[in-house]
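Below: protein 1.
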Amino acid sequence: MFLVLFWPQFEKDGFVVLENFFKPEEVDELKSAGEEFTTNLPPEKDRKVFDTVDQRQSKDQYFLESANKISYFFESEALESDGKLKVHPRVALNKVGHALHWHHPIFKKYTFSEKVKEVAFQLGLIEPAVCQSMYIYKNSGIGSEVVMHQDASYLYTEPVNLVGFWIALDDATVENGCLHIAAGSHKSGVHRRYLRNKDPLAQELLIYDKPPAYYQLSTFRPIEVRRGSCVLIHGQVVHYSKPNRSETSRHAYTFHVVETQHVNYSRDNWLQPPKAGFPLLYMN
């Protein structure tokens, strides 16, 4: 089976593409569940924007409290200042997160599928837990940029043992904003962290401990994949995606797995586990 062959490349490059990870009918079910969120949007006064460039969510209690719920985040270009939509509801959302894997039956089914468990086993994870999940829309025309980053900046563990599962629900191309990854960049450590602000009087609830690192654009390459593919992403590999100005969407479902045996999940991370802890992958 192809799963036993991916480890050398993952260790070398910090990512690997598993093609045809989910069947077409499974992708359809995931995408249908994601699109259903657009039919029941929050009221205008409760609509929040997610933007990796301006980082507006860093001042937003709604974002901070979204770790263990299903919360809605809009594209900045989708809303008027009063929360009214500028665009059709089907293309207004940036993402929905961050506990789809636990609170939504469809996403729970696929997150804890035997395929995912087999990958985690092949990665040598002993007691992996799912710490967050997101449905990412990257809608045609207004899908926003995701700046260069490492996932471990946000979900830091000591030692770092974090893996992202990024499932393409549309063909991801250069035109519609596919991932760009700097192969091998996972070997350079964690460059900065995104932390809960300890100053109770500050407007920023979340802050970075360092300014952004500088990365040479030439070190990145586009990762174009077909729908149903899974891109495994090492927690320290640097990646980004460009805005989607094309006429086709680039939906994806992504979740992150952390090792819990002999690994400490930082209490400074923005996302904190529920009282019962993150759900263990092998136990569900």
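Below: protein 2.
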Amino acid sequence: MVDNKQAFCVVLTTTNNEANKNQIIKALLTQKLAACVQEMAINSHYVWQGEVCQDVETLLVIKTRKDLYPQVEEQISQLHNYEVPQIVQLEIQDGFNPYLSWIAANTLEL
């Protein structure tokens, strides 16, 4: 049973490079910084250096613990192919206790 259901988060990042995506996923999972990483194809529209841009990207949805976020952010920023990658944390307010327990059991203990 999970003691603090608010101890978990989802981290989002995007990339437009298949090799970079695989490198990030492998690093996060092998280092136990994440229990699960889901990927989905997206079309991104954004402003970069004053220009409106569009890109086909992959969104990574990373399930982890909030206390691991600094290491997740550092790992993604070190590996990422973008100058300014999206790396954002969304707090999980509540969730199915067996699933949250699974995240806890499959991530690095600090």
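The beta strands are 8-15, 36-48, 51-65, 88-92.
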